[in-house]
Amino acid sequence: MALPTQHDDFPGWYQEVVKQADLAENSLARGTMVIKPYGYAIWEAIQGALDLRFKQTGHENLYFPMFIPARLIEKEKEHVEGFAPEVAVVTHAGGEELAEPLIVRPTSETIIWDTYSRWIQSYRDLPLLYNQWANIVRWEKRPRLFLRTTEFLWQEGHTAHETQEEAWEETLRMLDVYRQVAEDVMAIPVHMGRKTPTERFPGAVETLTIEALMRDGKALQAGTSHYLGENFARAYGVTFLGRDGEEHFAQATSWGVSTRLVGGLIMAQGDDKGLRLPPALAPVQVVIVPIFRSDEEQARVLGAAESMATDWRERGLRVKVDTRDDLRPGFKFADHELRGVPVRVEVGPRDLDADQVTVVRRDVGGKTAVPLSGAADVLTGLMPEIQQALFDDAVAFRDANTHEVASLDDLRGAAEAGGFAVGAWCGDDACEATAKAETKATIRFLPLEREDPGASCAVCGQPGLERATWAIAY
After folding, report:
1. What is the mean pLDDT of residues 101-115?
2. 3-state DSSP call for residue 437?
3. Which of 35, 138, 181, 457 is most enclosed, with most CB atoms within 10 A?
4. What is the pLDDT of residue 80?
5. How far apart are CA 324 and CA 338, in angstroms?
């Protein structure tokens, strides 16, 4: 089935790519999904890149229960109010009504900080640098596969520190880890910045974000890192005996990304043919498509293809031979383009006679004849080249769709056109709300370090205090 074009029907294009590339499908309970092997392999690659960096920065993995006693949630008022509309509650189990309802984990700050109150007694117990890989349940009103589902997979880091300075350094460090994975592994350029007070994580003192631009001109919040200050330590009584002999509240951070990154990858890198996967995370980097017409040719070509695959795997490439003999080569070509395999290698009897193969890049297309003796070197060299080309293409798209705005009319026009709109903001919540009501665009981020915009607020005309970036977002 042909895909809709991105220009004509981006939501339809996205849904068909997820379906036809065998990434995921809707499950029986509303808002839940089955992640299929190919989609899960992409998530595993993202997960592996993150987990490696977490451990390199001194973090350890652990696991907390998904059921949280309701009394713990109620201790942090702002946190409760922020998540109340999305929370799922278990009231009956084992055929009986529970004496105390259980919250199905929407995030784990509450149970973790209650536990930390028993683990932390002295400054010698700090820092705690922990992360968990888990599932999360948030009741979504308008679910969409990968982007917003009632249940999704994620990681959540929860750290405790002796000082404010250490906690803030951790918040920045983990934001940069997310940037590294987005840009170096997923080839998606991101902006790092601060959220406005109205967009902060419930209970956070400061929320930092990485924001990416999708091919339909909408923004995607791709990861967040929160400085929580003493808020959760105070709510759950997490104190320690300091170096000065006095009692202090621990300083906290939390940070997380989820399977929505798979959705972001599709929308940031895809084209009208389907996925375009960066080699750093592609489950298959090179697919070999044998071409033959007779049983004799089949045996010869398949034997050569398997030999090539073995050799190229020894060179560190992830290689697959498409041995499906009930499908025509043209169908296979389109199928692997849909799945985003970075390089396709075509080989038939004529290629073998000429001691060559035909190489096709997914990102730019075009066929190149490559001598078989040098094919391994060519293919290994193409991987970083394609990785960089996809990143450069995404940067060019983002830059072409970033607009300076000086008035509400400018902002309205930029929102209709799509992309990032950059201009001065006065810092007033009411002004932020006006812009959202008028344009549907929200402030996606403010610079990490406050900048004098040197201009009047693009919304109200009062003196600007911050340089803000707006966009309509997922």
Report:
1. 95
2. helix
3. 181
4. 64
5. 17
| DSSP per position, 235-287 | HHT-EEE-TTSSEEEPEEEEEEEETHHHHHHHHHH-BTTB----TTT-S-SEE
Contact 389, 409 (CB under 8 A): no
Query: Which of these three, 220, 240, 269, is where a domain ends?
Result: 269
Co-location of 227 and 82 in the same domain? yes
Q: Which helix (H) or strand (E) holds 91?
A: strand 88-93
Structure tokens at 292: 């033959």
User: Per DSSP, what are the bridge partners of residue 287?
Assistant: 320, 344
Q: What is the pTM of this model?
A: 0.95
- Same domain? For 134 and 220 the reply is yes
Specify the pLDDT at position 224.
Answer: 98
pLDDT tier at 81, thresholds 50, 70, 90: confident
- DSSP string covering 66-121, please? SEEEHHHHTTSHHHHHHHGGG-EEEEEETTEEEEEEEEE-S-SHHHHHHHHHHH--
pLDDT at res. 73: 85
Spatial CA neighbour of 250 closest among 270, 263, 234: 234
pLDDT at 128 over 90: yes
Asked if the model's pLDDT at residue 461 lies above 80, the reply is yes
Asked if residue 157 and residue 46 are part of one domain, the reply reads yes
pLDDT score of 86 more than 90: no
> For residue 461, what is the domain's CATH number?
3.30.110.30
Domain boundary among 214, 234, 269: 269
**In angstroms, rounded to a whole number, what is the distance separating the alpha carbons of residues 425 and 285?**
45
Same domain, 96 and 210: yes
Residue 75 has pLDDT above 90, yes or no: no
Are 137 and 207 in a shared domain? yes
Range of the domain at 343: 286-382
Query: In terms of domains, do 319 and 422 share one?
Result: no
Query: Is there a single domain that holds both residue 374 and residue 461?
Result: no
Phi, psi of 264 (to 5 degrees): -65, -40
Residues 204 and 350 in one domain: no
pLDDT at 77: 66
In a domain, 276, yes or no: no
Condensed to tens digits (0 to 9), the pLDDT of residues 155-187 reads 999 999 999 999 999 999 999 999 999 999 999
351: its two tokens: 């290629």
* pLDDT tens per residue, range 222-261: 999 999 999 999 999 999 999 999 999 999 999 999 999 9
Tally Cβ neighbours within 10 Å of residue 313. Answer: 13
